[in-house]
Amino acid sequence: MNRVVTLGVHFNGIFQENICFLRFPERPTNKAVKATLLGDPQIWAHHTEIRQQTTEIIVDDKTVGTFTRAFIWHLPAFPSLAIGCALIDQPSSWRCFAGFHRSLMMIDGIPDTVDRTKFDDLISVMLGIRKYTAAKLSNFAGVDSNLQVLDSVHKERLRRLRIVFSMP
How many CA atoms lie within 13 A of 45 on its CB side? Predict the structure, then answer.
């Protein structure tokens, strides 16, 4: 098994080979940032009350930021009624229902001052990590600070080959 793996990535439905996802077993030299999602809004369950989900950013086992967003099922201006029965698995039986068609409404609370074209999601907003555009990715040549790491990737491959095949 390879200790070092480089993989191309998909971006906007296009496979990009000029950039890669690099995976190797060494511990990072910088502090690790962990993003944790707390609370299942149970969207699938169609609860009528407001559901919450909190994202926490943790550094050195300390929470440095939290963000809570809410979910609610919203009725349209002219609701339509749905009535029917469906076969379910657990327990195997028929379950009948009656209710109004609703749409899920997320109240994310991201301020209007945040330019959403520059950030992918809530975590990128919290950490201030701007997203790459397709144009930037197509011309991506790497970052100078990564050159040493990428050079070590190639050396690691040769080192492992020498070990496996007892080469000098």
Answer: 9
Report d(CA 110, CA 68) in Å as an integer. Answer: 10
Q: In one letter, which amino acid is 26?
A: E
> Which element (helix H / strand E) includes 18?
strand 14-23
Task: State the DSSP string of 135-162.
Answer: HHHHT----GGGHHHHHHHHHHHHHHHH
Q: 51 pLDDT exceeds 80?
A: yes
d(CA 74, CA 96): 22
Asked whether the whole model's pTM tops 0.85, one would answer: no
Q: Is the pLDDT of residue 1 over 60?
A: no
Give the helix, strand, coil percentages of the chain, each rounded to 5.
20, 40, 40
List the structure tokens of 134: 């397709």
Please give the pLDDT value at position 81.
93
What are the tens digits of pLDDT across the range 126-137?
Answer: 998 888 777 777
Q: Give the span between the Cα atoms of 37 and 56, in whole angstroms.
A: 6
